[in-house]
Amino acid sequence: MKIIKVRTIVDGHVRGKVLVSKASISFLGGVDGKTGTIIDPENELYKLSIKNKILVFPEGIGSTVGSYVIYALKVNNVAPLAMIVNYAETILIAGAILANIPLVDKPSLDLLSLVKNNDTIEIDTKNNLIKVF
Amino acid sequence: MFITKEQESMLEGEQGYTISKLMQLIIKIGEANGAERLIPIKSAQIAGVSYLTVGDAIFSFFHDLLQDNVKVKVPSWLNPAGMDLKQTKSMGIDKKFAEKQLKIIDNYVRLGIEPTLTCTPYLVGNAPAFGEHIAWSESSAVSMANSYYGARTNREGGPSSLASAITGLTAEYGLHVDENRLPHISIEVNTELESLSDFAGLGYWFGKNFGGRIPLFTGIKRLSIEEAKNLAAAMAAAGSVALYHVMGVTPEKDLYSDSKNLEKIEFTTEEKNDFYNQFNDSDGSIELVTVGCPHASVKEISSINKKLKNKRLKKNVKLWIFTSRQVIENTNNQDLINNLRRIKGVSIFSDTCMVVSPSIRNKFHYIATNSAKAAFYLMKNKDTHVICKPLDKIIEDVVE
After folding, report:
1. Contact, A30 vs A40, CB < 8 A?
2. Is B264 helix (H, G, I), strand (E, B) or coil?
3. Does B24 touch chain A if contact means CB atoms closer than 8 Å?
4. In this complex, is the C-beta atom of B137 within 8 Å of any C-beta atom belonging to chain A?
5. What is the pLDDT of residues B23-61, one digit of tens each?
6. Which of A64, A71, A94 has its CB closest to that of B57?
7. Percent of chain A surpassing pLDDT 70
8. Strand, helix or coil at B126?
9. Do residues A115 and A91 make contact, with C-beta atoms less than 8 angstroms apart?
10. Radius of gyration over every alpha carbon of chain A, rounded to an integer in angstroms
11. Chain A residues with CB-CB distance to B45 below 8 A
12. pLDDT higher than threshold 80 for residue B198
């Protein structure tokens, strides 16, 4: 197990399976708000569902309307369990707060090369850390 | 972050769950950007209106907002929608799209937001004052507010501008702070800027090569509002530039007067020609001429009217002008609007534009425009061939 420091944006204590995208994600046009499926054919997670996963990716990009897509994921019960990014910009912060999805950024190690799909991660925002199993 | 007692009570939910959420949103975005406090805003301009861009995702959010019966605290206006509300048929908008679009606007109106549906609030009586803190979101409007008027706004997203409208607050970071408004680079303009598209070319070139930095332009003696908005729009689209200064012209003289130590770059006829050559992706065919990105002013519309006097458009060519409803419906402009509408092939639309409406994409394949921003977005569609050049020259090509 590895313990990695993070910065907390939205609180939560969750444990779940990882889904990693090496590319940044535009929620608008990149993720289907109804089904939680990645719909950007350029993304390595194309056609996979982010429902109940801990989504690890560099940052949010694209239209700021992406925040509303994150919110829709929650309303439609297909939201990720949590999100871990290198840098949380406005789109993700707004979306995660509206949808109450735990969000942390600035991991002290390069998480993108450290974890792979289906690894288990525990997020503990009380202590600003994550545990990689 | 330091927050006042009243702000704390809003955050704690004393004014309802929604207000508490929106406060959290503003505070967290502020904290992530190093803000130390919240500041009141005077107005908000809200993006996230066109059904083409927001889709169905926004309805669940409206549901929660309206359940708590919240209203905006400051004058707030909407960005363009996906269609002209009164000309859906001639734009070829389908019924389902139109219904959803009207529902989105209706929801915003219920929050107390004025459905101005324009990216140029400053052309219809809503210009910000010098030094005023505001929360605007459409990228060219943001740059105009900062650059031409000396007001202060970051480029807000749809959700953050809405949160600021409802709480009346934004976080103090980025362009709200003096030191972040200083120019980074000096651009000496050594070529004549004659048309609006020349100004757009300068903006596009800067945005593409120096995106994210704040320019101080020298060698521009005057700047009309039309020139300023074309410069702003191109720079924002090509390089996310939200503020520019023009030596001796734009109002923040105190911030840019000490510019001796800035790196200096020239903009010459060569760079200007390079810009036009990039947007020459056509064999000369034109199906549609489109003007009004950002929304056209009365002056721009009347100059088109003059250029078309005693002429007609070639067969199969359309000219679509996008402006705000306030301009179309202003009683002083009725002769102008009616004159133009009598010319076969000419349409004047309000409430929307060529970038956020589904009416152009996939329907016209050869498009000419004098807006670099419009050209930039229209070219993203691989089947669309776009020409960007001065309007005089475009009109010469399409009249007989």
Report:
1. yes
2. strand
3. yes
4. yes
5. 999 999 999 999 999 999 999 999 999 998 888 878 888
6. A71
7. 100
8. coil
9. no
10. 13
11. none
12. yes
What residue type is assigned to position A54 of the chain? I
> Is A24 part of the annotated catalytic residue set?
no
Number of other CB atoms surrounding residue B127 within 10 Å: 17
Establish how many alpha carbons lie within 13 A of residue B321's alpha carbon, considering only the half-sphere containing its beta carbon.
25
SS3 call for B385: strand
User: Residue A104 pairs with which residues in a beta bridge?
Assistant: A8, A84
Cβ contacts below 8 Å, chain A against chain B, sum to: 74
CA within 13 Å, CB half, B371: 31
Distances (CA, A) of B164 to B26, B109, B111, B321, B397: 7, 16, 13, 32, 46
Partners of A71 on chain B (C-beta within 8 Å) are 57, 60-61
Query: What are the distances in angstroms from CA A117 to CA A41, A53, A56, A113, B282?
Result: 18, 10, 9, 11, 46
The interface predicted TM-score (ipTM) is: 0.83
List the structure tokens of B83. 């269609």
Place of tokens 């757009």: B200
- On the question of pLDDT at B179 being above 80, the answer is yes
Q: How many CA atoms lie within 13 A of A117 on its CB side?
A: 8
Q: Quick one: chain B helix, strand, coil %, rounded to 5?
A: 45, 15, 40
Instruction: Tell me whether the omega of the peptide bond preceding residue B294 falls within 30 degrees of 0, making it cis.
Output: yes
| Tokens coding B57 | 């995702």
Give residue B284's pLDDT. 83
**Do B100 and B52 meet the contact criterion of CB atoms below 8 Å apart?**
no
Six-digit token string for B30: 């502020």
φ, ψ at A130 (rounded to 5°) = -125, 150
DSSP labels, B138-167? SHHHHHHHHHTS--B-----HHHHHHHHHH
What pTM value is reported for the model?
Answer: 0.92
**B32 vs A contacts (CB less than 8 Å):** 9, 88-89, 93, 105
CB distance A133 to A32 below 8 Å: no
Query: Residue B118 pLDDT > 90, yes or no?
Result: yes
Tell me the C-alpha distance between A85 and B337, whole Å: 51
Task: List Cβ neighbours of B124 (8 Å cut-off, separation of 6 or more).
Answer: B116, B118, B324, B326, B327
Angle between helical axes of A66-75 and B158-167 (0-180°, round to 10)? 80
Query: Any chain B CB within 8 A of the CB of A9?
Result: yes
What is the per-residue pLDDT across B128-159, written as a single tens digit (0 to 9) for each?
999 999 999 999 999 999 999 999 999 998 99
- Integer-rounded Cα Rg, in Å, for chain B is 21
- Report d(CA B211, CA A9) in Å as an integer: 28
Sign of CA dihedral B323, B325, B329, B330: negative
Min Cα distance A57 → chain B (Å) is 18
Give the pairing type, strands B366-369 and A129-132. Answer: unpaired
- pLDDT, tens digit, for every residue of B55-110? 887 888 898 889 888 999 999 999 999 999 999 999 999 999 999 999 999 999 99
Joined tokens for residue B127 = 């210009």
Alpha carbons B246 and B338: distance in angstroms, whole number = 37
- Contact criterion met (CB < 8 Å) for B158 and A65: yes
